[in-house]
Amino acid sequence: MSSLPLAEIRRRFFDGGELPENSVPTPILHSWRRCLGLGLPAGRLRLPDRLDAPGLQHRQQDNADWLQLARPAIDALFDSVVDDGHVVIVADRHGVILDQMGHPAFLDRAERVALLPGMDWREDVRGTNAIGTALVLGGPVRVRGGEHYLERNRQLSCTAGAILSPQGALLGALDVSGLPRKLGDAQQQQVQAAVRHIEQRLFDDQARSLFELRFAPDVATLSTPRCGRLGFDEDGVLRAANRAALAALQLDWSLLGQTRFAGLSGQSLEHWLSRHGDNTASLRHGGQLYSARLLQPRPQAARQGSAVLPEKSSPASRNRDHVLPDGLLERARRLLEADIPVLVLGETGVGKERFVQALHAASSRRQQPLVAVNCAAIPEGLIEAELFGYEEGAFTGARKQGARGRLREADGGILFLDEIGDMPASLQARLLRVLQERTVVPLGGGNGQKVDIRIVAATHRQLEQEVSAGRFRADLYYRLGHYPLLLPPLRERGDVAQIAAGLLANHGAAARGITLAPALADFIRHHPWPGNLRQLDNLLKTLLALADDGQQLTVADLPHTLQPAAGAAPAASAAPTLAQLLQQHDGNASAAARALGISRSTFYRRLRQD
Prior knowledge:
Blueprint: H1 6-14, H2 26-37, H3 53-62, H4 64-81, E1 87-92, E2 97-102, H5 104-112, H6 123-126, H7 130-137, E3 141-144, E4 157-164, E5 170-178, H8 185-207, E6 211-216, E7 228-232, E8 238-241, H9 243-249, H10 261-265, H11 269-276, E9 281-285, E10 288-295, H12 315-318, H13 328-337, E11 342-345, H14 352-362, E12 370-374, H15 380-388, H16 406-409, E13 414-418, H17 425-437, E14 439-440, E15 449-450, E16 454-459, H18 463-468, H19 474-480, E17 485-486, H20 496-506, H21 509-512, E18 515-516, H22 518-526, H23 532-546, E19 552-553, H24 563-568, H25 578-584, H26 589-596, H27 600-609
Parallel strand pairs: 11-16, 11-17, 12-13, 13-16, 18-19
Antiparallel strand pairs: 1-2, 1-5, 3-4, 4-5, 6-7, 6-10, 7-8, 9-10, 14-15
Helix pairs in contact: 4-8, 13-14, 26-27
């Protein structure tokens, strides 16, 4: 680490100067850059309001399942750190503090910096801090004193770890905070051990219904939290894992649902059990030999008041609050649970499909299928067969065994009718009958089949106008449109740069140390984004694919089709000369350099060449 005082390192960073190598830990520097790119001020900052008591209670209830399992580890962590004057903090996956307990001497200090239940400690709200930064990274982090981005938090030192479900879904964070001189390696190790214990209990809870494969290089560690653990369903499909297993096998969470037991072990579940039972056997993978044991499902009575933990979420859904308007998802969930059709409206590209995926993951039907039908993409002559299925010989070219159809495939789950405004008029009456009777009759006749489905529909069209023009049935519109939900365009969702930062995190930018320069963040804020969220997300994925690890993305990295627009953006205004740009900022070279997204030393070098 650098011998420079942290105060001097901070001054150089905020002045746009070059920092000595290893002057601050890499996760801290990357976090600073993310915060700077968002334009977050390090000085005085208006903090968000604290949740009221009912709001906090609602958050705690939403997290009750995993908190119940985590409580023994949280209490043990508290017992181990309280005598040293520290506090233990539990936050949800959005960074909102759910619980806090600690030494009375430090609780007063914690209150002065709003380290309290009901307060939001996301990184894009509070700057670099252990809770928010751990949630961004999905792993452990320690932030000491002046390493906090906000000046007001320099009196704290914090160490935290993100808690993941056995499907890789972000559940929350566990944190220990205290005085900078008192909090060190010991507390960091204690937090990490507590997180491992919590994740082990979460896995234990789910593994009862799965075939569990435990493996480790040493047979003595098969019963410890450090062994690799994988959970497979009865078809041999990987459904759950712990971090140790994924690291050992060089897998990632995205492979859940795609990897099979036979692909890892070279034999089926049945073959393994017939040969080894629940005894220890050898498992070879990637040239490494492990001791392994396969445990069969262990039925259990459901815990009182428990619910199934969230299914594996895609990276995009982990941070969905960055891209979905506040409150809209919960409103849709309540409609869905009440068996009221959910109608989602919005311009092309606003993220209607992403919204529906998040709704499915948040609903009580998340374990059941989400069946999507794009009414605009299927030829009109085939959409009826696609939806309702058909009997053998129903039409020329029909498959011999017939087809179930998407409505019956969605039985027990959710049917998503995308672009319903483009559904042929001839089919709208049949759909209306299904909504009323919940019975599906396939093409070619046959007995009707009752279906238990929830309906979600989406369109970019103005359905009232379509009804007036006679292209959409009024009775179907009124059946679907009890309470239409409008997804606003990207330009109306607040700070688009914050949404961009969330999308970058979803795509792994934080792990690679890739951040936004302030000028690029400002361009993102002011660009009209006619393609909405889809356009922004595609651009960011492209920039990440072209970027090197540790790179700060600047306006110069944009494709040439956006460069003219970038030149028109306020922060990326193309001044005739750098000298004039310097004059515009009252001679402040640091401010002028930040406007261009370059360091102060680079600005001076270009100024001499200009």
